[in-house]
Amino acid sequence: RPLFLYIFLFYWHFLNALFTVEAPQSLLTVERGNNVTMECTFPVNGKLEFRDLSISWEKKDELKQVYVLHKGKEDFKNQHSDFKGRIKLLKENLNLGQSLLQITDVKLTDAGVYRCLILYGGADYKTIHLKVKAPYRIINQEVVSTGHNEWKLTCQSEGYPEAEVIWENRNYEDLSNKANTSFETGSDQLYHVTSTLTIKSGIDEIFKCIFRNKELQES
Predict the structure, then answer these.
(1) Cα–Cα distance measured from residue 1 to residue 173, given in angstroms and rounded to the nearest whole number
(2) Which residues, other chains included, contact 59 with Cβ-Cβ below 8 Å and sequence gap of 6+?
(3) Structural domain spans, the chain
(4) pTM for the full model?
(5) What is the 3-state secondary structure (H, E, C) of 96-126?
(6) Residue 187's pLDDT is what?
(7) Which option is the CATH number for 14-133: 3.30.310.40, 2.60.40.10, 3.30.40.10, 3.40.50.410?
(8) Cβ atoms within 10 Å of 91's Cβ, excluding its own
(9) Lowest mean pLDDT among 91-95, 116-120, 197-201, 202-206
């Protein structure tokens, strides 16, 4: 019996060595509200036998089940409520050895590490890191006179992840260290950013505020 077990384990590891799952893109960044498709590939070697194919997608860092295909049949009974109605496996690509998982109406909470596990003769998995952003597109500006040639300039915006606010004059001098910037987060998980710069200047001067996302290197 020990010899049989040894041979079985050797054969199993040999099969797994031949069966390899790949992730063409291990890092994806998507904008909140858009759709995203994550992909992992696997060897088919001829005609795909659906009854022999099992696929599991889960959000690895939170142990949330996203999608399960068990021996060719979809199984949603243990799918986490975060993903209900927003998940689709593009089955037409399975014959090509592609497991394409689409998430619609992406939310900030969808960000994280996903694991794609495939069993088809052998077994293997890969992980994909999904980042979600909400750009600081709309910037509300306010200018208030506080005295003779004295002004309070305010810029407000919201987005994700947290951004730094850079203030410049027409000569591109950095005035950010003179500004007061505050951050708040609401139930929508967005950062609500308010930055105020008080300056002495004539009315012909030009100032601008720039919201820069350090993590994503975007402005």
Answers:
(1) 78
(2) 66, 80, 112, 113, 114
(3) 14-133, 140-212
(4) 0.80
(5) HCEEEEEECCCCHHHCEEEEEEEEECEEEEE
(6) 80
(7) 2.60.40.10
(8) 13
(9) 202-206
